[in-house]
Amino acid sequence: MSRSVVITCAVTGSGDTTRKSPHVPVTPTEIAASALDAAKAGAAVVHLHVRNPATGAGSRDPALFREVVSRIRDKNSELVLNLTGGMGGELVFGYPSPLPLAAGTDFVGAEERMAHMAELAPDIGSLDIGSTNFDDVLYGSTPSISRRMALNMAANGIRPEIEAFELGHIELAKQLINEGVFTHPVLFQLCLGVKYAAPATPDSMKALRDALPPAAVWSAFGVGRQQIPMVAQAVLMGGHVRVGLEDNLYLEHGVLASNAQLVQKAATVIHLLGERVASPSEARKLFGLRATNVMRHAALQSE
Fold first, then answer.
1. Spatial distance between the Cα atoms of 297 and 77, rounded to a whole number of angstroms
2. Half-sphere exposure (CA, 13 Å, Cβ side) for 53?
3. For the ranges 5-9, 49-53, 132-136, 151-155, which has the lowest average pLDDT?
4. Which domains does the chain have, with CATH numbers?
5. pLDDT band at 290 (very low <50, low <70, confident <90, very high)
6. Other beta carbons within 10 Å of 106
7. Which of 13, 36, 178, 219 has a CB 3.0–4.6 Å from the CB of 246, allowing a cystine?
8. Which residues are within 8 A (CB) of 295 and not within 5 positions of it... i.e. 6 or more apart?
9. Selection from 173, 166, 164 nearest residue 146 by Cα
10. What pTM value is reported for the model?
11. How far apart are CA 220 and CA 178, in angstroms?
């Protein structure tokens, strides 16, 4: 019997990709429109960053998130919204001495990293549970920061999605699960192919999957040209999938993609492997989400 596979579309990210592809959305209007197109193509979940409309740089401005969420909800009340909790952890060290920290550093506490979530109460909030090297930029999230973010999400009715870039991140997640910080089902996103983290290979995905706690619900993605191969691998291993312009700009060699095209390609792979693409309502059941956050948005609009 076939199973339902949830497609998440990571719509824009925060990296320096806007100069590499005209399809990467920048303004709230563009981000919302691209998210809605991805939903029409089969995405049940959209993972959302925002960007400074003037510069294209990643931002954590709650007003920008508010506009994106409002524009999406005005057109689609069922789509599952996953807001990033990853902004505010970047440390850029000086050279040759690491201190003082260099331009580009944006390092804040747990509450500031999720100020937009506390206001908007999305269905899901991503939680980068450990520290990772992104070339010479260190993304820093200590156990204390991760714990505080998870507890704040729970207080606001948000389901955390634990971003695991390596096995140590899963071990920290298990510790917090044992502390009662997370409630079931616990969601994991296995992040593969990031430089200096877990590579985008079948062995790496299997190692991460096998390390997950019992009854965990998991998705996975690959970066760059490994995006679609990792879709197939995740489906075969029993997981859900993520695609989108945050992680990959190309539909095939030399052909720039839109978010909707990447979702369509993932849906084709899922169907060819004999499975079904999950609807937003199915995703809500699989991920243990409540419908009350849509109602929360309506309440915010009326205030």
1. 9
2. 11
3. 132-136
4. 4-302 (3.20.20.70)
5. confident
6. 18
7. 13
8. none
9. 173
10. 0.95
11. 23
